[in-house]
Amino acid sequence: MVGSRGNGTAIKTPEPPVIVFFTMYDGKYAFLHFELTDRVFVNPEKCYCRQNSKRPCCTVVIDTKDKTIDLRRFRASQEAGKGLYTWDLARFRIPKHPQHKDVEVVKKVEYLTLEFDSVEEKDVFREELKSLETKESEAEAD
């Protein structure tokens, strides 16, 4: 890096891990993309099963310490050559990507509620999420 006082080195923190969900939205296949910053966490207090504890809980609520979560969405086009086979996740991270402009920024998302088919599936997700948090902490310590 060249500055007014000579050459230097810019040290940047590593980018946080991301979660990309493949889901249905308004009857179309969609990717939901958001960063797992240190402000995002699983909030068991917002879970609906806290109101009805008679059945096993298959819900995870992802919350934020900020007012909203930065969520981006891309919905599949059903046109020939533009559907599921043309999806490229780079569009979420690279502003110069040709389809970056097609990514929708979803505003005012306060939390995400994820419903799983079983408690086991929910537990697997929670463990994977914990492993990402651990890897991010290790990267920051290096």
SSE blueprint and pairings:
Blueprint: E1 2-3, E2 6-7, E3 18-25, E4 28-35, E5 40-42, E6 59-64, E7 69-75, E8 104-109, E9 112-115, H1 119-141
Antiparallel strand pairs: 1-2, 3-4, 4-7, 5-6, 6-9, 7-8
Q: In words, what does this structure look like?
A:
The protein is of the alpha+beta class and 142 residues long. It is 16% helix and 32% strand. The chain is built from one helix and nine strands. The strands form three sheets. The chain has a four-stranded antiparallel β-sheet, with no helix packed on it. Strands 5-6-9 form a three-stranded antiparallel β-sheet. Strands 1-2 form a two-stranded antiparallel sheet. Strand 3 and strand 4 (28-35) form a beta hairpin. The model has no long low-confidence stretch (mean pLDDT 81).
Give me the secondary-structure category: alpha+beta
Number of helices: 1
Through-space gap between termini = 22 Å
Main sheet: strands, sense, barrel = 4 strands, antiparallel
- Give the mean pLDDT: 81
Taking pLDDT < 50 over at least 5 consecutive residues as the criterion, the unreliable ranges are: none
Shape: globular
Give the number of DSSP strands: 9
- In quaternary terms, these chains amount to single chain
Q: Helical percent range?
A: 10-25%
Return the string of H and E elements. EEEEEEEEEH
Major β-sheet strand ordering? 3-4-7-8
Which percent band covers the strand fraction?
A: 25-35%
